[in-house]
Amino acid sequence: MQIIDGKRVSEKLKEKIKQETVSWIHKGGKKPHLCAILVGNDGASHTYVAAKMKDCESIGFTSSIYRFDETITEEELLKTIREINANPDIDGLIVQLPLPKHISVDKVTQTISPEKDVDGFHPQNVGRLSIGLPTYISATPYGIMQLFDYYNIDTVGKHCVVLGRSNIVGTPVSILMSRNTTPGNATVTLCHSKTQNLENYTRNADIIIAAIGIPEFVKAHMIKPGAVVIDVGITRIKDPSKKSGYRLVGDVAYDEVAPLCSYITPVPGGVGPMTRIGLLMNTLKSARKEIYSGKI
Q1: Which residues pair with residue 38 across a beta bridge?
Q2: Contact at 8 Å (CB) between 80 and 66?
Q3: Which is the most buried residue in 76, 94, 199, 237, by most CB within 10 A?
Q4: Helix, strand, or coil here: 252?
Q5: How far are the Cα atoms of 82, 112, 119, 140 from residue 4, in angstroms, in the given order?
């Protein structure tokens, strides 16, 4: 069993992105600029955005944050997004989720310019992904594919079971795994809350990508020996033995599943750091105009 060290891989890839950024700027390119919108006082969101901005600083990007109280109206937020769309200095825009209930996530997503949608959520970018055109790939699936590539994990002809069909992870990663690429070329089964006899699928899977948000849902009896397990989930659960009063767990019962696997991602330290790498890669592509200028 080998642990997939997302933290180590992310550091190596950050250094690569930094070198590419230096070269780009040296050749006369503009400094990539990632902008984040943060609404409300959700602690996890603030921590995550701060980490993204720190990443930007470490590799030579410009970063900026628009902070708003949770009472901001939907129209005020959409107006700000349109203003950022029109700002030629900003290459990538992310709106950190979750948003207050009175603000439509769909409206926000569709208002962001596809050219600056480095989260890869805009319908235009999702559509481009589905038919194999160059696009901004959702950051978490992008990061997962980087892990397969780094560890030379064979995906060709393998049976990949994806647990969860969200537009952020499950659906896009199922598309990526089935495409005629490397990594890719897997036979993909997309499972969800309505799937019957789920264990029949997972026990026959060479690769499992768990993205359902249910703590420690995947147990040892659901795994085929030698499987590759990618755990996307992360949930805080109470733990009085910890100084913080909680611990982080994934969608996989790690302690019992890990001994059965050929490769497995831990939580934390697996997929999480790679999500930010996907975001940085997309932002550099935007600065270079690689997606919407015809360059690949």
Answers
A1: 67
A2: yes
A3: 94
A4: strand
A5: 40, 34, 24, 15
AA identity, residue 258: A
Q: What does the block give as tokens for 262?
A: 């050929």
Catalytic residue numbers read: 52, 96, 119
Name residue 188's beta-bridge partners: 160
CB atoms within 10 A of CB 113: 17
Q: Would you say the CATH fold of 139-272 matches that of 28-113?
A: yes
Q: Both tokens of residue 92?
A: 């990538």
CATH match of 139-272 with 3.40.190.10 = no
Looking at residue 24, its amino acid is W
Find where tokens 């699928």 sit: 201
Domain ranges of the chain: 28-113, 139-272
Residues 204/224, Cβ–Cβ less than 8 Å = yes
Cα-Cα-Cα-Cα dihedral of 286, 292, 294, 296, to 10°? 40
Q: For residues 126 and 157, is the Cβ–Cβ distance under 8 A? A: no
Instruction: Fold for 28-113, please state it.
Output: Rossmann fold (3.40.50)
Could you tell me the strand order of the sheet in which 207-210 lies? 2-3, 263-264, 228-231, 207-210, 159-163, 187-191
With helix as H, strand as E and coil as C, how does 112-161 read? CCHHHCCCCCCHHHHHHHHCCCCCCCCHHHHHHHHHHHHCCCCCCCCEEE
pLDDT in tens, the chain (296 residues): 999 999 999 999 999 999 999 999 999 999 999 999 999 988 888 888 999 999 999 999 999 999 999 999 999 999 999 999 999 999 999 999 999 999 999 999 999 999 999 999 999 999 999 999 999 999 999 999 999 999 999 999 999 999 999 999 999 999 999 999 999 999 999 999 999 999 999 999 999 999 999 999 999 999 999 999 999 999 888 888 888 888 889 999 999 999 999 999 999 999 999 999 999 999 999 999 999 874 44
